[in-house]
From TrEMBL:
Name of this protein: CNT family concentrative nucleoside transporter
Keyword Transmembrane helix applies: yes
Recorded GO CC terms: plasma membrane
InterPro entries reported for this sequence: C_nuclsd_transpt, CNT_C_dom
GO molecular function term, any single one: symporter activity
Top-rank lineage group of the source organism: Eukaryota
Keyword Transferase: no
Amino acid sequence: MRYPETEETLTAGRVVIPDDDEHKAENALHAFANGAWLGIKIAGTIVCSLLCIIALVAFINGLLTWWGRYLNINDPTPLTLQLILGYLLFPVSFLLGVSRTNGTNKTGDILPVAKLIAEKIITNEYKAFSLLTNPSPKDNEFYGLSPRSQLIATYALCGFGNIGSLGIQIGILSQLAPSRGGDVAKLAVSALISGVLATLTSASVAGLVVTNQLSSFGQNASS
């Protein structure tokens, strides 16, 4: 849907695989060795890309935190990419139908869920889910979310639409099709946005259909 095919392809109705004598395996052992080497290159590229992207995010967060101290933006949460994106996603969290009244927080669960979505986009879904499911109330602003907010957040966080996945995507596809590496890099950010929108769409549908999580899934649904 994001990149529709508007022209008739050359392989429509038939597929012709050209001979590649340069990379043609002589026997099964040779083919096994070539596959193993390709796997090592892909795995190495993924690891290096992830490390570089995570290091870049950490470097930017370090600069923002250092700068935020001079602006007195350090307590209780330091200035980071996650914090900035969390506030930018506040309207999105509101439109998803997150609980607007919960405890003493004037904004209910809207801001915490927006920060969880930002954490998932900047870091990855594993870190976001670990914050969502952390049972300790100490220094955990995500503790005590309403069952409805937990449901919507679960759908919103369930996906690979994050910056770290860009490294995996670019690494794998660039190794499988080296000549199309530039095209992959151009569409990487667009694919990230599409992935985020897909999970947010699922979350909005869940928030629309399920009005009372406890009555729909039982008491164990919020645990």
